[in-house]
Amino acid sequence: MSAMSAVSAVSAVSAVSAVSAGDPGKGKVSEEAADRRLYFLLTVGQRRVQRWIDARAGDSASVSAAQAGVLFYLLRHEDALVGEVGAALQLSPSSMTGLANRMVGAGLLARRADAEDGRATRLRITAAGHKAVARARDILAELNALLHDDFTEAELKIVARWLSNLQNRFPADLGIDLARGGAQ
């Protein structure tokens, strides 16, 4: 089962669990149960935000959310190894390779062999990639405004603390070295 299939399966289980926590026999979710389906709500929310970003990036001058992640990483880590970028973005080696190939093909990135290890590949942002970064920043500014809308600063601090806590409770590695593509 792929990682996405596993996430979808767990989301489906979360949805079923929420229904079963509601009114048995009627298939309704109680308000209290609906408010506590955090994994389900987080997953659905992430998918909707991802779709919104990808829809906004639908024109030829924009990049996908995944591509924007690569570009933003490379802004701070110029000439990073493909594996370093993938590990930072928590992508499998094959996913990162495919993403890099598409971005090179689109003219957003350039590749070069590592000076010390000719088998390793480094990535650099091109002029077209820098233009795409500017567009991605505009989209993210719009997204952040939407995400902040209707919330007080105190509420946003709690949301930010909760999301940061997810990263602490569920470490990225979990015994897997994503840069190397397997278990440690």
List strands and helices in order, with pairings.
Blueprint: H1 3-21, H2 31-35, H3 38-56, H4 65-76, E1 80-81, H5 82-88, H6 93-105, E2 109-113, E3 121-125, H7 127-148, H8 153-169, E4 176-177, E5 182-183
Antiparallel strand pairs: 1-3, 2-3, 4-5
Helix pairs in contact: 1-3, 4-7, 5-6
Structure description:
With 184 residues, the protein is mainly α. The protein has 2 domains: 1-56, no CATH class; 61-184, Arc Repressor Mutant, subunit A, CATH 1.10.10. 62% of the residues lie in helices and 9% in strands. It contains 8 helices and 5 strands. It has a 3-stranded antiparallel β-sheet with strand order 1-3-2. It has a two-stranded antiparallel sheet with strand order 4-5. The protein is globular.
List keywords for this structure.
2 domains; 8 helices; Arc Repressor Mutant, subunit A; disordered N terminus; single chain; mainly alpha; disordered C terminus; 184 residues; 9% strand; two-stranded antiparallel ribbon
Give the full name of the CATH homologous superfamily of the largest domain.
Winged helix-like DNA-binding domain superfamily/Winged helix DNA-binding domain
Second rung of CATH, namely the architecture of the largest domain: Orthogonal Bundle
Q: Determine the mean pLDDT.
A: 81
Shape: globular
Can you tell me the number of structural domains?
Answer: 2
How much helix is in the residues?
55-70%
Alpha carbon gyration radius? 20 Å
Distance between the first and last residues' Cα: 21 Å
Largest sheet: 3 strands, antiparallel
